[in-house]
Amino acid sequence: MTDCIFCSIATGNIPSRKVHHEDNSIVSFLDINQAIPGHTLVIPMEHYPWFYELPDDIANKLFRATRHVAQKLKEKMNADYIQLSIIGTDIPHVHIHLLPRFLKDKPPKL
């Protein structure tokens, strides 16, 4: 899909701070509108508007990559845990939000 901003980020047509690739099917990058420092998005490279449309192999890769990025993000940010959200209404391309969290924090608004 040529007018999808996440497709353009995935292909490199829009610059981003990428943090992880998994076999050219999954990419993660820092959200340009950080809700909190370290706010990261994990997306499939191929365009799927809704989570339930993902083929099983892509869904599996997406969650493996998400777990890997969450572990690295927790370590790098010295966070207590990583909040995971799949919202899906802001940009019609499957994406997972990862937010480094601390037990003393109030939840951010996404």
What would you note in describing this structure?
It is a single chain. The chain has 110 residues and is of the alpha+beta class. A 5-stranded antiparallel beta sheet has the order 1-2-3-5-4, covered by helices on one side. The radius of gyration is 13 Å and the shape is globular. It starts with a helix and ends in a 9-residue tail after the last strand. The model has no long low-confidence stretch (mean pLDDT 90).
Instruction: Note the overall shape.
Output: globular
Helix content: 25-40%
Computed over alpha carbons, the radius of gyration is 13 Å
Termini separation: 25 Å
Query: Going across the major beta sheet, what is the strand order?
Result: 1-2-3-5-4
The number of distinct helices, counting runs of at least 4 residues, comes to 2
Main beta-sheet strand count, sense and barrel state: 5 strands, antiparallel
What structural class do the secondary elements suggest? alpha+beta
Mean pLDDT, to the nearest integer, reads 90
- Extended strand count: 5
Low-confidence segments, ≥5 residues, pLDDT <50? none
The succession of helices and strands, N to C, reads HEEEHEE
What percentage of the residues does DSSP assign to strands (E)? 15-25%
Short description:
The protein is α+β, with helices and mostly antiparallel strands and 110 residues long. The chain has helices at 5-10, 56-77, and strands spanning 18-22, 26-30, 40-44, 81-85, 96-101. Helices cover 25% and strands 24% of the residues.
List the helices and strands and how they pair.
Blueprint: H1 5-10, E1 18-22, E2 26-30, E3 40-44, H2 56-77, E4 81-85, E5 96-101
Antiparallel strand pairs: 1-2, 2-3, 3-5, 4-5
